[in-house]
Every structure is written in C-alpha cells, then in structure tokens.
Amino acid sequence: MQPSGEQRNRPARPAPERAALARELARRVGEDSILWTDDTLLPYDVDGFTLAKFPPDLVVLPTTTAQVTDVLVFARAHGLPVTARGAGTGLAGGALAEEGGILLVTARMDRVLEVDVSNRFAVVQPGVVNAHLSERVAPHGLHYAPDPSSQMASTLGGNAATNAGGPHCLKYGQTHQHMRALTLVLADGSVVEAGSRALDPPGLNLVGVTVGSEGTFGVVTELVVGLVPRPEAVRTFLAVFDDVTSAGAAVTAIVGRGIVPAALEMLDHLTIVAVEPYVHLGLPLDAGAVLLVELDGPAAGMDRRAGEVHALCREAGARSIREAKDEAERLLLWKARKGAFGAMGRLASGFYVMDGVVPRTRLPEVLARIEQISAEQDLRIANVFHAGDGNLHPNVLYDVDDPDSVARAWRASERILEACVELGGSLSGEHGIGNEKRDLMGLAFAEDDLAAMAALRRAFDPEGRLNPRKMLPLRPGCGEGLPRPGLAAVAAGLSPDGEGPWI
Amino acid sequence: MQPSGEQRNRPARPAPERAALARELARRVGEDSILWTDDTLLPYDVDGFTLAKFPPDLVVLPTTTAQVTDVLVFARAHGLPVTARGAGTGLAGGALAEEGGILLVTARMDRVLEVDVSNRFAVVQPGVVNAHLSERVAPHGLHYAPDPSSQMASTLGGNAATNAGGPHCLKYGQTHQHMRALTLVLADGSVVEAGSRALDPPGLNLVGVTVGSEGTFGVVTELVVGLVPRPEAVRTFLAVFDDVTSAGAAVTAIVGRGIVPAALEMLDHLTIVAVEPYVHLGLPLDAGAVLLVELDGPAAGMDRRAGEVHALCREAGARSIREAKDEAERLLLWKARKGAFGAMGRLASGFYVMDGVVPRTRLPEVLARIEQISAEQDLRIANVFHAGDGNLHPNVLYDVDDPDSVARAWRASERILEACVELGGSLSGEHGIGNEKRDLMGLAFAEDDLAAMAALRRAFDPEGRLNPRKMLPLRPGCGEGLPRPGLAAVAAGLSPDGEGPWI
C-alpha cells in the first residue's frame, strides 16, 4: 500500500527554478494566484490522508475556466504534472502532488453561478463548499442531497472527483446521481461540456465516468448539480444495542420490511466510547452498538412508519430508543455520527479512517474478521458503518510515535480490505482510491479490467499528466508485460520506460 | 473504416462468400448458431427504427461468453464489423448492421443465472426479456424497476445498450442506476469485468459509461442488475383535462408539493383519440389531455397522499378523475399509456415515435412549438410524455405511400428536436442515438464534446469495428465543420461520398 520508496517525500524543485516558473505563469494568471515559496507551499504537501507527503512545485489558485485552461496549456508546454485539489479533506491521498508540478487549488472558484428552483438545479464552481450550497438554496425548500461527513469543509469539485457518499446517500444516491453536467478542461486546455441541464442527456455518459475519476480526466471548472426538496417530515432515532449482531438484525428487519430510511448508520462499542465524552448523549459506555435511523418524506403516514421502526428495533433487542424531539436534538444525535471520526483522537494519537464495502448481509462476517485482525495486529479498531448499503469505516487506532504500531496499522488496513473483497465486496465505498489504495486495485480487478480503465484514462489524458500515480496500480516491471496486446499497448505507450505508473 | 457512400443499403456479401465465412465460424461456435442464407437473414436487416434497412452478412446466436469471444476473435481476423442485437425493438436504429458483417444476436443468452434475494440483485444473460426477470423474482416480493413500454419483448442487454427509461424511471431512475456489474467482451476478445455485486464499487465507472454506449464498447454477456422491493401499496389515477396546459399545471403542482409519484404520464388529445377505441376506457374524445398518476410506497399515509393528488388535479381543472379499484383496472389504465404507440396505427399508415427532452417547466413551450411544426408540415402529431421528467414522445403521423409525406415527417422530426435543444433540452431521453440521430449530435454537443466521446470509444474499440456508424456524427470533410446532412439525407443514404464516420 505504501507508495514506492524513491518517490516518497521527494523535495520540490529548487527555489530559483520554481521562481522562474512562477514568473512565467504569473503573466497568464496574475501574481496573486501563485504560491511558490517554501513557507507558502507547506500546507499543500498533504491532504486528509496524513500518512503521505508530497510537496508541489507551484500552487495556483485560478478563478475562471479560462485561467484553468491557461494553467493547463502552460503545464503542457513545460511538461509539468497537474493535480487538482479542492479542500484537501480527501482520505485517500487523491490530492497529493505525487510528482510535484502544479497543484491547482479550486478554493477561489467558490461562486454559486445560478439556482434554477423550478427545474431544481444549481450551477456552481468547483470550490463551493458542500454545506454552503444547501444553506444557499434552503430558502427555496431545496438542498443538495449527498452529505459526506466532511461537508462543512469539502467542496463540490472534490466530491465529484471522489464520487463522495454520505449517510443520506442510502436513500438519495451518491454524488454521481446528482451531477447533471460538468465543464471539464482537458490536459491540452480544450473544454468539454459534458451532460445537460435537462435530465437524461443522450450520447456517451461523460458525466458518469468523469465523476469518481479523481482528477485524472481533466479539471472540472463548473458543475450543474441537482437539488432535492427538503422532506416535509423527518424523524430521527438512536437505538442502543448490546452487540453489533442485534443492531445488524434491526438493519435487516427494517430493510426487509421495504422501508427505505433516509439514513441507517451504526457505531460500534469502541466508537461509542470515543464519542460519548464528546457529545454527552448519555450513551451507556458498555453498549455494543448504536443504530441511528432517520426517516424522511411526506408527513402523511410518518407516525406509522416511525412506529414500525421502533417495533423492529425492539424486536431485534434494542435496550433503549431515543427519538429526537426537535431539530436541535436531531443535530445532537447526528453529532454522534458525524463527529465520530474526530472523536477518535481521544482514543489514540493516530487513527486511520478506512473505507470498505461488503454486500449488506455480510456485515456480521466482516466484523468478525475485523475483530480477528484487531487481535492479530494488537491494535484497537473502532467501526462506523453506513449499515444500509454495506459500507464500513473501520478506524484503526495506532501510536504515531511508534513505527511498529504504524506498520501494524498498515497491515491491518490491508487485511481488512482483503476481507472485504473476499466477502464479495470492494476496496472503497466513497473515499476513492487515490494514493492510498492504488496498489491494492489488483485485489478487486483483473488485469483486463485495469487495462480498460487505463485506456479510458488515456482517452482523456494521453500524456498521463493529470494527477499522475493515482487510482491505477503501478505498471508491472519490464518483462512481466500485460496479458492483452490491444489495451496493454495503449497503456504501455504512456510509460515507455517501464518505471512510471500504469498511466 | 470504409468510406460510406457505396456501402449504404448495399446488399450483403455474395452468398458463396457468406457460406465460406459461416463454415469457418461454425467450427468455433457450431453450425446451429449461424444464419447466412438470404431467407434466414431477412428478419435481421431492420429493427424498431423501420425507416432504414441494412442486411448483415452473418447472424450468430451465441449462448456463452466464451462463444462471444470466439465470434469477436473471428471477426477481428477477417476484419468484419460486429453489431450486437437484443430483441431488435430499439427505435433509433441502434441494432442495424450498417456495414454488414456479423450481427451478434443475444436471443439465446436468455438465462437468469442467479437471484440473490437478500442483497437484491440478479445475475442475468443479456437476452433475458425485461418483463421476464420481474416475473421471475416476483415470488420474492422484488422486481426490476426500469419498465420501457417494450418490456414484454425488449431484453436487458438492449436496455443496457440504450440506457432505457420507462414510466417508473421518474421515481426509480433509468437503467444505468440499476446496473451493478457487467461482463464486457471487447473487440479483441478480451473480457472485462466492470463493477461489483456490492454497491458503490471503486475505480473508474466502467459500468456507468458502458450503459448507453449502444454496443460500441463491447458485447455485454452478463449483467448484475439491482432488484427493488415491490411497494406495499399502489394507487393509480387517470385524470381528464380540457387541455395540456391545465394537465401541465397539475404536474407542476404535484411535483411542487414534493410528491414523487411512481409515474406521471401525459397523453394529448390526438393520442386519446387513438387509444380510446383500443382500450374502451370511456375517455371523452374531446378531452385535451389525460394524466396518469401512480403513487407507490408504504401503505401508511397513502390515503392522504392520494387525496392530495386528487385535490391538486381538481384545482388544476381536471374534468374527471378515475382511480383504479383493483389491479385489473390498474392494468387497464396503464394499457392506455403503454399501448399508445401501437394504437397510432389506427390513425395513419406510418408513425414515427420520437424521443426528446426539455426541462420539465418548458413542456408547454415545446408543445406550442410542436403544434406550429405540425401545421407547417401539414402532419398530425400525437404526443405522449413522461411529464415528470420532461421527456416527450411526439408521434409524427404520415402516409407511408406518399414520399412527400415521408419527407415532411423527417423535417418535422428534425424541427422538433431542434426545438428541444433550443429550450435547454436534448436529443433523446431514453431511446438512444443509433443511426437515427447520429448526424444531429452536433445540435447538442460541440466538437470538443464529440471528440471526447470519440476518444472514449476508441479506448474500448480502437479499430471502430463494434456497431460502426452509430451514435457519433460522420467525420467532417476537409475544411468543413461538422456536417449535418439531416435525417432525410441519412435515411436516403446521402452521406457525402468519401467521408468515413467519426470513428
């Protein structure tokens, strides 16, 4: 999982070289848009995946599509890689400038350009913060549905890059289901308008394949995102169980009844121990699991559906069920979930937030495996789940000052992802692949599958200069070759020396 | 790629040549799987887009992924194009063997391989008929949600190729939202497994971009499709209005109230005149529009939601509202909608089912434009809508024996699609591009957008041998922009000589 040795922590180009590049680029985009000195670059060598650091040579903060084109044309002329970055909250290292070059930060592209209330979409720049869009359209009774836990900081451009999920994606779908159109600047500076403001556009699904491509296809400079009416009624419950098995039984019962909750989240014992001192909800510290269930929809019939959820939780063995009386209490219950990752800091000096998926019915099995891995590696692992769709977030707790503990955390993470794949699941539900899981892609995909992805990527970025070394595993060494001549040749054309990344 | 002119409506290869190819291919896939004589090829030179005919040289009916690989390797060795075909119900000519070669028919790949009730998916071969899958899983309380009007005949492979829609896609989403994984055989015979049985797989979204690619990326030989619980309660209403404006107002009111109906379909006056003698519902023949509204979901609260829909239709001016008392009556009400296209045969010897999209709020404008076009071209046009998502199906009625009437039908169709694009919409909601709209793509997409699609397609099929001449416009000649010869020219085989297709 660790990136190959020689490229890790490579220093940036010498300052005079960076200064010269900055001067030249300043003529196109203005001096105020460029950072190049050591001190100003410092915050940009790391993102939410804190285990790897790569300094960029230049940081550019454009404000318009035309400026992004300028930056890409400049980068091409100088053979510089370009990595786009939103808020830098990504947990998979997708915004690391692994080969240096230009880090294109979208923070200043933060304008909501248009809101069409009747047709329920907004046109935004990529640097708009997820939660800000929902705040902006709230007076119209609308909101933007995907709600990653990072939503107070993460941007819509970054959300699109990773196809971000969130608790409410169980009912409303992930980011790709809410993206209608994208403006994409390719590596050669050309501008592609993908999709349409109307629903169901024809032609190849450029939007669907660009969402989740982690900045390897182009730089998204404008997004048309769908907006969803705020539900008439919302009911939120927190049910406490003795163990995850009985909480899991409640999940199965709720889903089996044909109820589609707005969210269905689970925290395990260790997570409860972490969050209770932070939220003061009075959660019993000996509880084995907590289930957060939210129902939304028309007010009509809500009482009956809420009663059903209550009954199903009781039947599954819930110790107690607390329902939010008002919006303030609802936000408090949610704080237990959305603040869970932050609260891990109370338990250990380092925690590694993982992201795996299994078919929903195999959650108990994967939990048993995680318990076993926890014992083997002698590390505590706290689990948070989007239980409704089988997406789990194990938090591997380790000691940042103990290299052996760090190494065991890596091993634990790898074992957990292997278990997910073995149980019919996959490597990532919503955080992306980035740097973190690039070399694990072979666990989930065969060579032909990866070759198809590489060919797709090359279709957009033939020189492989956009966010290099992300998503796809490093190319096999010389002589190993690739099994299939067609796509293999395509992929090989990108890294003729056999030492570069797959693409 | 061959130049176009001489190949259009060209006859199949001479029989002895076909016989020789058939003999050789028979050694790989068996004699019983191959058709090559004139009489047996006859049914395969046309699909649901009856305005164009192209005979294949061979028809092959494989039963396994391995046989599909055999066919593609054979085709590659002989430089033959390959076009995949499901049931041949497509309305855009996507299954026409435009350059002859092999028509790969999936009709015998009709097995449901696995049904996972707990995790709600089925693994099927591409030749499984849409409705058959829902019948098969009905005992488990599940169904496959996308329901094109062709669902009694059309196959899941064809549905995936066109990203098929259907009335219930308003609530449940189009085909691409229900495809979890695909097995795709590429032009070189290699096999790509895209997606995962678990939700939200990582990596580039190969499934999302393959769905809707109309067989230009590869041949899908296995699909993992999501299944949806059958709703606890269903209520179906047919409301009669004096005109489409008031029916449209009801649509706006229902959607504006935050109600998400399972379906929201509209028929205009001329459609009512066509369907009433067929369904005997007692629809008043002077009615201006009929709205079919279906609600589904939990039984709790359904009465109140049904009451709201009633009241909103009344407020918008409904003359009468009929609610289905039981499943038999519900199916009868649906017959008015799903049988609408077939009923057009009562009004004219020829009818051209079109497919356009506009933002929902612009339906009244596009209807006014269609009325104007109808007058200009002196042709009756009957309209059926998925009103909830702005997808319209104008049926242009013409006289098949009058060449002038046929030409006016072409012109009308082109004007209608231009109007859709002008109003912020697009060329197709759910039928695909195929042969029919290939040369209109320039209306909706700029050159850079089309170039991105072409690059994507080349990534999968570098030689352009899979379903050639589909979806993307013909390549511009030297010094010209994107030519748009118009539908009439396309149908008449008038593409400029010497110009190959875009890819």
What does the model show?
2 copies of one chain form a homodimer. The first copy, chain A, is of the alpha+beta class and 503 residues long. The first copy, chain A, folds into 4 domains: 101 residues, Uridine Diphospho-n-acetylenolpyruvylglucosamine Reductase, domain 2 (2-Layer Sandwich), CATH 3.30.43; 118 residues, Uridine Diphospho-n-acetylenolpyruvylglucosamine Reductase, domain 3 (2-Layer Sandwich); 109 residues, Alpha-Beta Plaits, CATH 3.30.70.2190; 156 residues, Alpha-Beta Plaits (2-Layer Sandwich). In chain A, the strands form 4 sheets. In chain A, strands 12, 13, 14, 15, 16, 17, 18 and 19 form an 8-stranded antiparallel sheet that branches. In chain A, strand 18 and strand 19 form a beta hairpin. The first copy, chain A, is globular, with a radius of gyration of 23 Å. The N terminus and C terminus of chain A are likely disordered. The interface between A and B is large, with 88 and 85 residues.
Annotation, overall tally of beta strands of chain A: 19
**What's the oligomerization state?**
homodimer
Q: What is the radius of gyration of chain A computed over CA atoms, rounded to a whole number of angstroms? A: 23 Å
The top-level CATH class of the largest domain in chain A is Alpha Beta
Mass-distribution shape of chain A: globular
pLDDT averaged over residues of chain A:
89
User: Distance between the terminal alpha carbons of chain A, to the nearest Å?
Assistant: 18 Å
How many domains make up the coordinates of chain A?
A: 4
Largest interface: A-B, 88 and 85 residues
> What amount of the residues of chain A lies in strands?
15-25%
Uncertain parts of chain A? 1-8, 477-503
Number of helices of chain A: 17
